[in-house]
Amino acid sequence: MAKQLGELVKKAGDYAGTAANTGIALATAGIEQLTTLAVYRCPCVTSKELGCNITQIGSPKCVHFLNLGYGLSFIIAPAIALFVFGMISNPKMWKLLTGCNHKQRGKKPTWTYFLWTLTEVSAAAMIAPVTWVAIALLDGRFYACAVTAFPYDVEHALATYPTCEAVAAAKTFYTSDSFNDNRSFSQFLGWVVISGCLIVGLFLFGYTQCSSPLTYYHAKYYRLYKGSEEAEFDDEMSKKAQVDAESNVRKFMEERREKKEWDRISTVYEFHRDRNNLALYSNLHSWVLEEDAKSKKALLGDTAEEPGEEPNGNGGTTMSTTPL
After folding, report:
1. Do 163 and 154 meet the contact criterion of CB atoms below 8 Å apart?
2. Phi first, then psi: what are they for 119, rounded to 5°?
3. What is the per-residue DSSP string for 263-291?
4. Contacts of 24 (CB under 8 A, 6+ apart)
5. Which of left, alpha, beta for 140 (phi over 0: left; psi -120 to 50: alpha)?
6. Helix axes of 283-300 and 216-253: crossing angle, nearest 10 degrees
7. From CA 319, how far away is CA 245, in angstroms rounded?
8. Which sign, positive or negative, has the C-alpha torsion 44, 50, 52, 55?
């Protein structure tokens, strides 16, 4: 049983990317349905507000701006928000942009690399917004509300509700025939979007696989290595940061300090480097290095080197001379 469970976990790991994308799509569909049930209510519009009557339903002027904006906002605005979230939550985006303007000459990404990475990140971020648009079109109410002049069954002899006030007071809404027709067309558009995205996605995925310089198992090892290296790097950075921070805080707290020293470490900090181009991570870190330099000067005289130039055995200075 344990062996079978291990094999199942291993197989699931092979399809981790597909599982993650499926999870994103399902979560997006669930959020869309909850949004529709909880907050969506298409506005009721009268012929007086539109300036036309029921016989002019097909005319473009019979589409109310409020309905158009309300319906489209539920399709477009969440899709944009999901796309932006997908972009900013992708580590590749920040690896590409962070410190880009200050990298050494020859280390900056080329425009070709920059655009390719941006395209890759954008493609991954499109999963959630495309799912939202497709599900919204399949539901049909957003699109129908946007393009239907009279979304509710009002203002005629056999109307379910005589006025929009009656519609607002009702717990169940009876929509007009034109609304239902537009909803059916929206569902058709939804299936077109899904089919088109699947075909385009399959083509692009096949093209990228064919263009890969690695074979199947080599590419699989490459993905596994990248994931393991990232996890190991994060773990080691966390350990080292804690050790260095503990050392610096312990040095400051080992005796009572004057107010000017408390003021020094309590001010707002902006990242900068010392004269040797080594990183200073906080006001406390900078203070520790200066104290180390003063102690060294007292022991060695005026020939002592400036802060951050050489380790002297304690946590603060060791931190300053690290490649970090």
Report:
1. yes
2. -65, -40
3. HHHHS----EE-TTS-EE-SHHHHHHHHH
4. 127, 128, 131
5. left
6. 60
7. 9
8. negative
Tokens describing residue 23: 């999870």
What Cα–Cα distance (Å) separates residue 216 from each residue in 122, 219, 223? 24, 5, 11
Of 37, 24, 26, give the one whose Cα is nearest residue 74.
37
Q: What is the pTM of this model?
A: 0.72
Predicted confidence pLDDT, tens digits, the chain (324 residues): 544 444 544 544 455 556 666 777 777 777 777 776 667 788 887 776 666 655 554 455 566 788 888 889 989 998 999 999 999 999 888 888 888 777 766 666 678 888 888 888 999 899 889 989 998 999 898 999 888 878 888 777 677 777 787 877 776 677 788 889 999 999 999 999 999 999 998 998 899 899 889 999 999 999 999 999 999 999 999 999 999 999 999 999 998 999 999 999 999 998 888 888 888 999 999 999 988 888 888 887 655 455 544 444 444 444 444 445
Structure tokens at 255: 């005796």
Nearest-angstrom CA–CA distance, 68 and 259: 62
Cα distances from 119 to residues 74, 92, 306, in angstroms, run 26, 11, 46
| Euclidean distance between CA atoms 51 and 61, whole angstroms | 8
Residue in 146, 176, 171 with CA at minimum distance from that of residue 160: 176
Phi, psi (5° rounding) for residue 29?
-65, -40
Block residue for tokens 């580590």: 91
Distance CA 85, CA 256 (A): 47
- Residue 12 vs residues 17, 24, 66, 160, 322: alpha-carbon distances, Å: 10, 16, 47, 53, 40
Radius of gyration of the chain (CA): 31
Say what angle helices 127-139 and 65-88 make with each other, to 10 degrees: 150
- Give yes or no for a contact between 144 and 182, defined as CB atoms under 8 angstroms apart: yes
Indicate left, alpha or beta for 308 from its phi (over 0: left) and psi (-120 to 50: alpha): left
